[in-house]
Amino acid sequence: MHEYYRKSIPKLKKTMDGYLKLIDKELEKAAGKSYGQLLQEIWDCYEKELLEHFPYIGGDKVSGTGNLTGAYMFVAMGEVLKRYGVSLEEAGRLMVICYERKFRSMPGIARKIAGKVFSNGRLLRMMYKKKDRTNAENARKYPGSFETKTLDPPKAGYVFSYHNLVCPLADFAKRYGYDAYMPYLCNLDYAMFGALGVPLYREHTCAEDGDYCDFNLKPGAPVMKAWPPVFKQGKGYK
Q: Which ranges in the chain belong to alpha helices (H)?
């Protein structure tokens, strides 16, 4: 285990509990165990099977580290629930419930401000081009970390388009056999943007297509529901 992750264990434990306690009753019902027991099992799985192998991609200096460590908490949850006969699809549904509760718990004013920011294409392009440069610099130091590209102009019909060119989540899944989880992890973007009232549309993912993950925003369009998962809705989005 990289020393960064070893030192981050207390913070990661707190983060895991902060998310999973939002669905504690659902977890107990699904597995027939107390939340405390399940949390410990999920943490043990996370620490021994996942955290132990995470690549170091820049630590606290890059936002992508939180994406990696956070997403795979749900993978650990799915792996533990599997022991109790819970399907991957049901685990995916619980992920969506958890994410929606998390983002809907934000103060209304904060969600409103976030919604306005994500509706301003010009502002987003300025912000994300800076992020592109930061990610490129970080990727030179730590190959395999997130690499991104902001499209200017955006894809036709959208106010903002952004590509993930390299995704450590997908790379880790392919290397360690967690590919089946990736569509459900990608689906959480719809849960997050939906809670903010922002219409997201995606046609590519690094995990499935091997090229890039696209984020296309279209204010005023219908917000896609995250459940059933977007990739199963038959509309061509992922």
A: 3-7, 9-20, 24-31, 35-45, 64-83, 88-104, 108-117, 121-141, 168-176, 182-195, 206-209
- Which helix (H) or strand (E) segment holds residue 151: the answer is strand 147-151
The structure's pTM equals: 0.96
How far apart are alpha carbons 68 and 114 in whole angstroms? 22
- Residue 150 phi, psi (nearest 5): -90, 125
Pair 22, 101: CB distance under 8 Å: yes
- Please give the structure tokens belonging to residue 130: 């800076």
H helix or E strand, kind and range, residue 236: none
Classified as helix, coil or strand, 166 is: strand
End-to-end CA distance of the chain: 32
Give residue-wise pLDDT tens across range 157-200: 999 999 999 999 999 999 999 999 999 999 999 999 999 999 99
Q: What are phi and psi of 58, to 5 degrees?
A: 125, -10
Amino acid, res. 73: M
CB half-sphere exposure, 22, CA atoms < 13 A = 19
